């Protein structure tokens, strides 16, 4: 796709400041593990100005609260924000409570269903609480884009839309593909990049960070700031972390995530479930180890060391980051116990009535399967055990009593039937 936004080299400050070694070091920190910085010369000039004037730069990250939890894929960007805070700059954590009502169409081939106001408010409250443990509160502004978007009104929305052309919007890859394939595009979806760009105008951001799938939207912010007579923000894109399947990006809507508030045993187990190949991608984007340390570990594995050792190191590091070292050690012990066929020390206790009860109904009522049809599929796949014995009979009915029920490697419940 052509660079439709004219990536300018001038930051428009009207004054040049000396570029010091400290500014150059800050530039390298900004670029570390990133995908693309546009334009690099302008960001270096901004860093030099901030050092000379003592005025911190304003760095924006916007997240739409489409689900109640932040996952570890988000932390690729959040870790970068923390690095920039440690350099003395201000992070604006923008919760897109207004834009969530539109639904970000980035990378999608269908219209995203909009959320209700109640869903947005509940998810936004969770986002704010979770991010507080990842960023420096003293250098973080938490903002909601309804502050200025609601105030625009119909007249303001029309005036904003007049500052950008349909031709530019349609150069976005996903819109182009959907239009070519005859897939419907709702008018409100065309407004999403404009509203995200207007956030940058309202916040006077110096740098906006996002995943590589957000590049178009981030550049719209540059273009609109220029339209409103502001100094254009720079754009930093970060790699997208693949989900547990190793195919799609980690996404709450795809169900392939690891939430940062998930119990330590679940977090550890999910990290151990990724492929040996995907493990190195997780090391690269999530680990606090240096690139040299990761390269050395990879060389050891390629030389014959068991890749499981490296995966345990990764799972322990990430679990400890969110739950502490003791919880990570306990999670490793729990994982090893399950791998040997053992039962965790603590499992849910469930009491159900209706004995004798069919295996499908039991699994559904004990929250071990989302439906009876899925329960039958699990039985057919030899994924269900009762007191350690594999269940192969779809018609099994359990009498009154207490049983340890296991589904897959990680789901357990002690079920009492009456």
Automatic annotation (TrEMBL):
Positions annotated to bind ATP: 252
Motif 'KMSKS' region per record, residues: 249-253
Gene3D superfamilies attached to this UniProt entry: HUPs, RNA-binding S4 domain, Tyrosyl-Transfer RNA Synthetase
Gene Ontology biological-process entries: tyrosyl-tRNA aminoacylation
Keywords: Aminoacyl-tRNA synthetase, ATP-binding, Cytoplasm, Ligase, Nucleotide-binding, Protein biosynthesis, RNA-binding
A Gene Ontology molecular function term of the record: RNA binding
Catalytic activity, as annotated: tRNA(Tyr) + L-tyrosine + ATP = L-tyrosyl-tRNA(Tyr) + AMP + diphosphate + H(+)
Function of the molecule: Catalyzes the attachment of tyrosine to tRNA(Tyr) in a two-step reaction: tyrosine is first activated by ATP to form Tyr-AMP and then transferred to the acceptor end of tRNA(Tyr).
Stated family: Belongs to the class-I aminoacyl-tRNA synthetase family. TyrS type 2 subfamily.
Name under which the protein is recorded: Tyrosine--tRNA ligase
Gene (name only): tyrS
